[in-house]
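Practice problem: Calcineurin-like phosphoesterase domain-containing protein
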Amino acid sequence: MARFPNRSSAPNRWYTITVLFLILRNIVMVRPEDGPHENTLGLIADDDIFAPLNDGCLRFAGGSKGASSFKVALFADLHFGENAWSDWGPQQDLNSVKVMSTILDIESPDFVVYLGDVITANNLPIHNASFYWDQAISPTRDRNIPWASLFGNHDDAPFEWPIDWFSSSGIPQILCSSAHDFGGDKCSFKGTTRLELMRDERRRNSLSYTGFGPRNLWPSVSNYVLTIVSPKSDSKSPVMLMYFLDSGGGSYPEVISTIQSEWFRNKSQKMNPDSSIPEIVFWHIPSQAYKNAAKKAAPRRAQCVGSMFEERVAAQEAEMGMMKLLKERPSVKAIFVGHNHGLDWCCPYEKMWLCYARHTGYGGYGNWARGARILEIIDEPFSLKSWIRMENGTLHSEVVLST
Ligand SMILES: [Zn+2]
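Answer key — structure tokens:
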């Protein structure tokens, strides 16, 4: 979710610094399109197209230290690219880079998940919104940490013309036609599609594990599975499966469709037929079950951790079978969502946990302090722990999600 704050746009020195920063970023982001997984949209198979890097396998750091933990940082609701024609928009992107950098340096995760609303496309009059997407992933890439991303409801939302532009102040100078050499004809208001954003991320980055789902799931795109494999270098045995789903919004309704549920059912049965491998699931917009979990917990906050009452759960528009499938699988340990910037709770629900991430970006609505949810997976014996790491370095809401 995002709302554009009505902030003052008094010019100050930050504007100049910010423009310089963006130009530099633009230069840095032009890397050779080096991905071994590079492909073209012409090669579309009926099954999963553009499978994630290395067959979607992620290994514990291992090495001589024999590391037995695998740490994942969740960056949610960054909302890059807001109000590029003002001073506060670019400034808040710099602030978001700072949040991510601080958390990456404190936690040193093995992997990062970008949990949707990476950009606020409905506030971006730009030909290719990958320009801002790339800025959002840069702190992770700069530290050589692999990552995966999925879509939120703002990532491909159509541009919303600000009413102010039709007043006496008129249409402001738009950065994409001046500062970034994108040329006037490339300053577009049509938006950038999910497929274009994902294709650009993969083509430019050999560290991206993001995958496309099969074509029959479109317009939902970010549907794929990654496997965390054993730290023992001679073993390919899975320690945990991570499912990524597109919960819609933006260019189509906020929902996980019946056909996506069917895809999950087939995929999970194929990869984990006896439910012996622990599984976790990521998407952006909470399912309606989150409302029930919060309601049940409200009187006593029984077993829940984190911020529960800053705002109401803003759930998907409908439930089309996904939750039923997840409830039936004993291997599903937790679901992680973003979307509600004021919530960061985890609550038990049936045999699993429903968790929010933590609003990481300075973009989007709300001024709650920024942070990130961290997951720690331990092998032999398996355990899954989580906590919130804040921008100021403090830690809270530690919880054991599975042992
Ligand atoms: Zn959001």
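Discussion: Helices lie at 13-29, 88-107, 130-142, 194-204, 258-271, 289-297, 322-328. Students who identified this feature from the tokens alone can consider the problem solved.
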